[in-house]
Amino acid sequence: MKLTFTDTAIEALKKRDMTQSLSLFYYTDSDCGCPSSGIFALRSHDDLDTIYDAIVETNIGDIIAQKWALVYLDTDNVIDYKESQGTFILKSERGYLNMNLPVEDKRKDH
């Protein structure tokens, strides 16, 4: 599995001071773990690092993730940023996985 950030996404993360200590978190609102019941979010400085048990290599460094949730990603995944809407986008060779990827800064003093 490959995860790449576009230059546009990297610049948008830099403006938020969020290029370090990244994690890919999967929110789900049910116990089934179905892909239709959850969404990915990109987090920085997440204190819940005990829930992460996988490392994903990216073009801006390693990020931590929940291993069980990686099954919902594809072989070639991209995080992009759409300037006109101010939103991050998670997409793959299948198309859009999330057209409004939440990006959360978990620093307590932020």
UniProtKB/TrEMBL annotation:
It comes from the Bacteria. Pfam families: Fe-S_biosyn. Transmembrane segments: none annotated. Residues 1-104 form the Core domain. This is Iron-sulfur cluster biosynthesis family protein.
